[in-house]
Design a protein that fits this description.
Elements: E1 2-5, H1 12-27, E2 38-44, E3 49-56, E4 59-64, E5 72-76, H2 78-83, E6 89-90, E7 93-94, H3 99-109, E8 113-116, H4 122-132
């Protein structure tokens, strides 16, 4: 299982996401079961950075830029995107019983956090959040 950064000069976000996933997989090898084919775009307009993840069973490629075939697109400011990695999860989604989870749900409702593919690809989104979560929380 490999996490590869495919950009020649990766942005800080691309490097950070790749390193986070590598650390999470090393710390919890069971997370490898989350690797199902999926394409995700993380967009932080305030930092002028867009990152894609191509997830396959054998590994993940992380790079800078947008890709047209993304199943899930997450758009928010850089701080909120990074905050998602520490949001407590329940079944792969923000835990509404925790203050941080409620704040994330409020960000969704107020459109400070936008997720395209939330309704069409909920399992892909849940696997992504579990893969990125520093602590995957209960019911992972």
């Amino acid at each position: 299982m490999t996490v590869t950064v495919v950009s020649p000069e990766p942005s800080g976000l691309a490097s950070m996401v790749a390193e986070l996933i590598e650390q999470n997989l090393a710390r919890d090898p069971e997370r490898r079961t989350l690797l199902h084919p999926s394409v995700v775009v993380l967009d932080a307009p305030d930092a002028d950075v867009t990152v894609f993840l191509r997830i396959e069973r054998g590994g993940i490629r992380v790079g800078d830029g947008d890709v047209p075939d993304a199943h899930v697109r997450v758009r928010s400011d850089a701080g909120r995107l990074l905050g998602l990695t520490t949001t407590p999860l329940r079944f792969g989604l923000p835990d509404p019983f925790s203050p941080q989870g409620r704040a994330t749900v409020e960000d969704l409702v107020r459109r400070r956090l936008r997720i395209r593919g939330l309704l069409r690809h909920p399992l892909r989104l849940a696997r992504l959040t579990k893969l990125l979560a520093v602590d995957a929380g209960p019911s992972t």
